[in-house]
Fold these 3 entries.
Entry 1:
Amino acid sequence: MNESVPLKTPTPLFRLLLVLSATTGMVDAASILGMDKVFTANMTGNVVFLAFATAGAEGFHAWHYVVALGAFMLGAVLAGRMWRSNKAERLSHMLVRAAAIESALLFLAGSLALRSSPAVAALWQALAVVGLAAGAMGFRNAVVRQLKVPDLTTTVLTLTITGIASDSRLAAGTGPNLAARVGAVAAIFAGALAGTLVFRWLGLGPTLLITGGVVLVGTCVFVRHPQMAELHRQ
C-alpha cells in the first residue's frame, strides 16, 4: 500500500477481515453471556452500560465496564506503538505478529476462565478475564484501523448498516461496497451465533480459546496468499 489498502481490497485480505469480524461476534457472545453483560469488542455498549450502572440500574456493574474500556484503550495504544515503530516490516509479517498477540491475550483469558470453571467466581478473576479479552479486541481494532479498508472494521456495524441503507437504490444511491457491507454484517452475526452455541456447549473458557485459535490460524492461512506479498504498510 502506498497510503492504504488499495481501493480494490485483495481477496485474501477481504476474507481475513471477514474471519476477524466473525471472531468479534464470538468474543462478544462469550463476554455478554459469560462475563456478566460486558462487551469486550463493542465499546459503545459499555459506555451505555456504564451509564446504567452509574444510575443504579439493577444487574449492571460499573467496574466491569471501566476495566473493559481501559483495557481496550490500552490494547489500542500498544498496537499503535507497535505499528509505528516497525515501519519497515512487511504487512503480512505485521498481521501475523498482531494475530499472535491478540490470540495470546484471548488464550490467557480463556485459561483463566477455565481455572475458575464453571463460573468466574472471584471479582479479580472476572475483571482479569474481561480486561484480557477487551485488551485483545482493542489491540486488533487499532491494527485493522490502520488498514483503512472501508466497511470492514471487524468490530463496529453501525456505520456499515447505515451505508447499506443510505447508499441503496431506495435512497437514490448505487449501493457501493454492498458485498463488503453485507459480508461484515453476516460474519459478525454468524460469529455471534457460533459463539453462543459453543458457550452453551462448552462454557466461557473454551469459547475464548477457540476464538483465539481462529484468529491465529485464519491470519496465518490468508497472509500466505501471493497477493498479500504485494501489500506494503504506510
Note: The CA atoms of residues 71 and 135 lie 5 Å apart.
Entry 2:
Amino acid sequence: MEENPPKAKKPADRTDTMSFLEHLEELRWRIIKGLIGVLVGMIIAFFFADFFVEDVILGPTRADFFMYDLLRVDAVNFELQSRRLPGQFFTYWGTLFVMGFVIGSPFFIYQMWSFIEPALERKEKKKSYFTSFFITFFFLLGVAFGYMILVPFALQFFAQFQISDIIRNDFDINEYFSSVAMWVIACGIIFQIPVVSYSLSKIGLLTPDLLKKYRRHALILCLVVSAMLTPPDPISQILIALPLTVLYELSIWVSKYANRKRKKELDEAITGISKNDS
C-alpha cells in the first residue's frame, strides 16, 4: 500500500463560499429573473390575445375542434356562461398569465435549475443549458398531451353526461378555465418524472433497483393519480395512466445512467484521475 496516496481533487463549486443569506439572495434574484421571463411571455400573449382566447382556450368547446376528428370523438358544443360580474375579465387575464407562463417557461426553468444545479453538477456550465432543455421539453410535452388528449376527452365526458333530460349543461366560464388550466399544467408537472429520477439518482437517493422493486406499486399509483386528474370514465384514466407508466419505465433507465455517472465522478474524486485522461 502506498505511503502517500494521491489526494482527491476537490470539485469546483461556485457556491462553496456563499453564506445562507447569500443563497437566499441568489434565489430571490433567480425568481425575479424567471418572473421577468413570464412577464415577457404575457406581453407576447397579449399581442396574440384573440388567438389564445378564441382558438386555444375556447377551441375545445367547439365540436369542430381539430383533435376531435383525430381522436374519433363524437363531440358536441360545450356551452359556457359567465355567472359572475368579473367572470370574463378573470378568464381573459388568467388566459394571458397561463399562456405567458408556458411561453416564458424555458427561461423560468433555466433560472430555477441554475440555482439548484450546483448541488448536483459541479463541472461544465453548459450542463445547466442541457438539463434545462430536457426539463422544458418534458414540461411542454406534458402540456401538449394535457391540451390535445386529456382536455378533449374530459370536456366531452362532462358535456354529454346527464342524470336527467330536463337538466341542461351550462358551465361557468371560470370553472371551465380553472379545470382546463389545472389539467394542462398538472400534466406538464407530472411529465417531470424522468427529471426527478435523474436528480434524486444524482445525489444517491434513488437507484434503478429500487425503482424496479416498486414497479407494481408505481403502476397502482399511476392509476390513482390518473383517477384524481380525470373525470370518472375509464378511457380518460387509461389515457393518463399509460404515459405515466411509460415515464416510470424511462425513469428506470435515467436512474441507471445517473448512478453510473455518479459512480464515475466519485471514483475520479477519490483517485484524482479522470477516466477521460486515461
Note: DSSP finds ten helices and two strands in the chain.
Entry 3:
Amino acid sequence: MNASEMATNLEFASKIATVVNLFKFEFPDARSDLKPWKNDPQTRELVDPDSIDIGFHFPGISKSWQSRSILIQIRFYQDPVNDARRAIGVEVAGFNHLGEQWRLSTVENWSFVGASVPSSQVGEKLKQFCRQTLEVFNNNSLSDNYSQ
C-alpha cells in the first residue's frame, strides 16, 4: 500500500519518515514519493495490504543505478498465534523507460537479478539501507502501534 495511507499514527508515520531519510542520506538526489500507486480499481487489486510502498525518483537515468525510479516495498507478517506484526523483508526494484531493470529481495538471497543491475557500490549501500529499514520497523513494538 502507498506509504501515505499506512501512516495511521504518529509512531508509524515517524518510522516511514525515518526510512525516507535513510534513503535520502545515502542518495541525496532522490525525490521521495509516498504515493507510488495510482488509486484506480485495477491498481488497487494488485496492492499488497501487508506492505508499505515508497518510490524514489532520480532527476535523470543514473548509470550507477541503471534506473530512474526505485520502488521499495517493506513487507510485514502478522503472527496469528501471538498477534505480533513485524517487518519480514524488503523488496526493491529499479525502473527506467523500458520498465523494470532489476530487483533485490531480502526475503531470499539478497542478490540483484535483472537485465541491468546497479553498480557494486550502489548495491552495497542499498543492502545497508535494507538492513536499517528492517531495524527501524522491528526495534520497537510495531504490533502494538500498527493496525489497519
Note: The beta strands are 31-33, 51-62, 67-78, 85-96, 99-105, 112-114.
